[in-house]
Amino acid sequence: MNAIALAAIGIFVFILGYRFYSKFVAEKIFRLDPNYVTPAHKYKDGVDFVPTNKFVLWGHHFTSVAGAAPILGPAIAVYWGWLPAVLWVVLGTVFAAGVHDFGTLVLSVRNKGQSVGTLAHRLIGQRGKVLFLFIILILVLMVNAVFAWVIANLFISFPASVLPVFIQIPLAVWIGHAVYKKNKKMLVPSLVALAVMYFTAVISSQVDFLQIDLVRYMGGEEGAGLFGLGAISTAFFIWIIVLMIYVYIASTLPVWQLLQPRDFINSHQLIVGLGILYLGLLFTNPDITAPISNPDADVSWFPLLFITIACGAISGFHGLVSSGTSSKQLDKETDARFVGYLGAVGEGVLALISIIAVITFFPDREAFFATYSSFQASSGAGLGAFIQGASKLAEGLLIPGEVAATIVSIIVVSFAATTLDTSVRLMRYIISELGVEYNIPSLEKKHVATTIAVVASAALVLIPEGPNGFGSGGYLLWPLFGTSNQLLAGISLLLISIWLRKLGRNYMITIIPMIFLMFMTLWAMFQQVFLQWAWYADSPNTLLFVFGAIIFVFTLWIILTAAQALLSKKDPGFEEIE
């Protein structure tokens, strides 16, 4: 099949979904009210609750949810063939992700901007809330470890990307000050900042001394490094510490000072990046060389496909962003459709081009299978295959290969970084909520909660377990990241269903994808975490098993508790909580 035709069909379905399905959900199910006073206005504090233009908020929301996962997951899942991956991305975005992201945003806005974890108290009871908060806490901890691992390795592999990524930080602070202190418009300064980033990318990709290559500074790959760790492990350790210092600062600053302007820059970067890749697709008109399916796969795509592609089809982390930060910045309730549903569609568009970049990169099917020889091999090769494939598409616009690879790596790192510091901020909120729950006042303090979040994340990603050695914690947790992410999405859909049920509204739009997602994810989780750990693994992953067992048991407990709440009588006054 022609790659351009595949992209066109996918985008057409996305357009139909936003134009018609999201409108139906907004008007008939959620019944958005343009006169509703949102939490951003009601509790405005200039730190977390900040009324924000819908385009700026869409930029923050989109780039916070569009981390490396909608690239990495699809790039791995093409191992089973491109058709299952494309179908799950397109249909999952329209009927599951869009409704989930949109729904968690509206639910939070209608309930004081509280997170889905906190709202679980009213929806499924006190015990369910605490269990859900612990599941969320474990998930965001894994998000922090996985994305820090990804960023550190990309900095090591693509040292030319370091300077352009870090130059974005002072530019974002400057934009935030200009916009919120001097009432300047954000669009032009953010475009200037993007131009500076890409100019720096072009220069650094050509000039060696502008490439911050920590491995080279320590004598190359064979260097001893610090404390005998080796050059690569030392470089990885240093980047993790630098990243943790950055996210500590970024997650404690007011959202207008760094988070919003940086994410707005990244939203332009995402649009530019998608434009480059899709235009490159048009100019190169590549053939799809990967197989439509892989009947000889060593593991079945059913049900593993649905956890391998989480972000890009549906992701529970999106609900945390919707209800954790975006709901506190929504200017008008009617903006929720644009921010929530269109944000999910944007991520679907990214996941689609990720698939196309990989399946058109290889010269023939034999070359594809040489790289994607097994599911385990695809897990290690996916991100590299995307960067090379995306660079090949960009070369169709006459962009030099080294420059294209640097720009693509900058895009991946930037998105991963936005997800990382948003996730740390969310983890701080959850720790503070648990402090309130268990009457531990010290945990309610911003810097105490943030310190716990950062230290725990650093410790997890640096765990030296398994054959990968030092710093393999993030990599080892990747299989569990997908399952826990999907379980969280399923629980969030269940909470929205209970909310709609109590309001006497049609909740089929959320309960159907919830049942499908829960079934697939629990099945996949039992397979991957328990069966393979106990019977099939040559070297059992204890870390994966412990985290997985906790999440599995907590999820079953929540489902049983929620089922009782779902079957209870409707309560038309439920929405009015104040």
From TrEMBL:
Superkingdom per UniProt: Bacteria
Entry keywords, A to Z: Cell membrane, Membrane, Transmembrane, Transmembrane helix
Chain ranges of the CstA N-terminal domain: 2-363, 378-524
Residues spanning the signal sequence: none
Membrane topology value: Multi-pass membrane protein
Transmembrane segments: 6-21, 62-82, 88-109, 130-152, 158-180, 187-207, 227-249, 270-288, 300-321, 341-362, 403-426, 447-464, 476-500, 507-526, 546-567
GO biological process, one term: cellular response to starvation
Pfam families (UniProt xref): CstA
Main location (coarse class): membrane
Entry's Gene Ontology cellular component terms: plasma membrane
Cellular localisation: Cell membrane
Family assignment from sequence similarity: Belongs to the peptide transporter carbon starvation (CstA) (TC 2.A.114) family.
Name this polypeptide is given: Carbon starvation protein
